[in-house]
Design a protein that fits this description.
22 strands; 10 helices; alpha+beta; six-stranded mixed beta sheet; five-stranded mixed beta sheet
Length: 412
């Protein structure tokens, strides 16, 4: 069961902090800056500023002086504001684009021409016209979805059915799909009358996106101490046929603020530290680099009572489960390389990889276990969309002069 807490911290007054718990265990922390709102999923009229044929890319401004990366290979059917005889991009062309990835580390935001709107049960797209179904749905549910949309795809829009659809009625799914189709159709029709750099669609706040991604059947409670956020969530729940009084609570206690009740300052500090202690006394060391994230496992204070190889397997399995949680908690994405404790027996390695794969399959964000290399390093990839927790809150620190070493530049 999931519980979501939405609040703010004294040291992060400009941020909306969203904490998601599963079975009372913290699984996600998101810090959304109210003053520097994310542009992820926003839709703009952009202008082609530069073309780089050797890397099959264009650079498109979505506001004056702010360029984003646009893959020519992945976007063969751009949506031009002004009609053209062909799909060939030229400098100065204006087209409708959507931000598919935020600017992460030194990389620019990524744009797409596959314009899409996301709902609780489905995603409707103007680019890819096919039916897509979440891989997390079982075969029986996939057959049901295929039958449901047989005859409902008109060739104008594509539909991607999300995992949440398994708990929805046919009527709820089709109603949301039709509503998003109408909204997207109106948006695209109005685009030709708008000026360059116009924002055609502004994505919702992160906390609403997080709520959309939670399995409705597993939702237990949503708690906030912010009246505006409370009212917005109340409207969202009502719009999605969920009873606000069943899920939503407004927290009022002047003596014990919500962030203190949930120890969120401490949780955030821990989520920004390199070392993560395990119950056994072993620990992880998590080190993000420019190219990928490295995770090392150490036995630490662990003292096993059985033979050494069994001890190593026990530590590694515990570490794998915690790594799965840390990936979600910190929103670590891209390439991750893990140095588990070396094990001699092939059966032990197989057991570890099977357990780790089970953990990763529970992640709402697509994570793929690549395998174990000859050097016994385990490699995985996790879909990169939004900034990591560290990137959300770190900034040059007034105290230490570094980039967020002492609580992300929040220590005063």
């Amino acid at each position: 069961m999931s519980k979501v807490v939405i609040t703010s911290l004294p040291k992060l007054k400009d941020y909306i902090v969203t904490a998601q718990y599963e079975e009372e265990k913290l699984m996600l922390l998101d810090c959304d800056n109210r003053r520097e709102r994310s542009i992820l999923n926003n839709i703009y009229i952009g202008k082609v500023k530069n073309l780089v044929p050797n890397i099959q890319a264009a650079f498109i401004e979505i506001e004056k002086g702010f360029e984003c990366y646009y893959s020519l290979e992945d976007n063969r059917n751009p949506f031009f504001v002004n009609a053209k005889k062909n799909n060939k991009l030229n400098i100065g062309d204006e087209l409708v684009v959507q931000v598919s990835k935020e600017n992460i580390k030194t990389k620019q935001p990524v744009l797409t021409s596959n314009i899409a709107l996301t709902g609780k049960y489905v995603v409707v797209s103007a680019g890819d016209k096919k039916l897509g179904i979440s891989n997390k749905l079982k075969v029986k549910e996939k057959l049901r979805i295929k039958e449901l949309f047989d005859g409902h795809l008109d060739g104008k829009f594509g539909i991607i059915v999300r995992t949440n659809a398994k708990n929805a009625t046919d009527e709820q799914i089709l109603e949301e799909a039709d509503k998003l189709k109408d909204k997207l159709k109106t948006l695209m029709e109005n685009a030709v009358h708008r000026t360059c750099y116009s924002v055609l669609y502004e994505a919702e706040d992160n906390y609403l996106s997080i709520l959309k991604g939670i399995n409705e059947a597993g939702m237990e409670q949503i708690i906030t101490d912010d009246r505006d956020i409370y009212d917005r969530i109340k409207d969202y729940l009502a719009d999605n046929n969920m009873e606000p009084e069943k899920y939503l609570s407004f927290y009022e206690d002047a003596l014990l603020p919500l962030y203190k009740l949930k120890s969120l300052e401490t949780e955030l500090k821990h989520a920004l530290q390199e070392r993560v202690w395990l119950k056994s006394g072993a620990y992880l060391v998590i080190q993000p680099t420019e190219a990928f994230t490295v995770i090392d496992i150490n036995t630490g204070k662990f003292t096993g009572k059985k033979n050494l190889q069994e001890t190593f397997l026990k530590i590694n399995v515990e570490a794998a489960r915690e790594i799965g949680r840390q990936l979600r908690l910190r929103n670590i994405s891209g390439i991750v390389v893990i140095d588990f404790i070396d094990m001699e027996q092939p059966e032990a390695k197989k057991t570890l990889m099977e357990e780790f794969d089970k953990v990763l399959k529970k992640d709402p964000v697509t994570a793929n276990l690549v395998g174990m290399s000859r050097l016994n390093l385990v490699e995985l990839t996790r879909k990169k969309v939004r900034r990591s927790l560290r990137e959300q809150v770190t900034k040059p620190c007034k105290v230490c002069g570094g980039s967020g070493v002492c609580f992300g530049g929040m220590a005063e």
